[in-house]
Amino acid sequence: MSTDEQAPSQITGQLKQAQGVLYQAVGAVPGTAESWTAEGERLQKEGADELDEARAEQKGEATVNRVWGKAESAYGMVTGDQTHLNEGNLKAEKGEWQNALADGQLPNPSWDRVKGKAQSAAGMLTGDQEMQKDGNMQAEKAEWTKG
Questions:
Q1: Of 54, 52, 55, 42, nearest to 16 (Cα)?
Q2: What pLDDT score was predicted for residue 146?
Q3: Which of 7, 100, 109, 134 is within CB 3.0–4.6 Å of 113 for a Cys-Cys bond?
């Protein structure tokens, strides 16, 4: 990609798709040039491709954030380093949200996972590392068992 090209964006991809639909509508009017329809089809495809590329990039970034966050959180848990534990949890959570939003959804955790996250957050706020650790373990267990 050249330096004057912008990174793929879901918004510009959707705008190109909408512009393509508009061009095709104009091309459907009797007496208009067929080039409107062809240009509309091209714009729709270009927009769809950009949207797919932007989603893939966002999901890749989400995976990196989630994996690094979980690793940092685990390091903090093992070493007793509250800062790494907190920062890791936040990065992992950010990655989870990024991944869901790339699919046009919100994260949909199980009830057990929500309870574990709440306990972890309470431990984070109070500085109770054991509570935070137990909450993390409950949330992770629920994620792995989908319970």
A1: 42
A2: 60
A3: 109
Helix (H, G, I), strand (E, B) or coil at 145: helix
Residues 18-21: contacts with CB within 8 Å, 24+ apart?
18/47, 19/43, 19/47, 20/44, 20/45, 20/46, 20/47
Residue with tokens 């390091």: 75
Q: What is the full DSSP assignment across 98-129?
A: HHHHHTT------HHHHHHHHHHHHHHHHT-H
CB count within 10 Å of CB 125 equals: 11
Specify the amino acid at residue 50.
Answer: E
List pLDDT tens digits, range 81-107: 878 888 888 898 899 889 888 888 888
Catalogue the E-assigned strands of 26-141.
none
Q: Look at the block and give the residue holding tokens 């990174």.
A: 7
Report the residue count for the chain.
Answer: 147
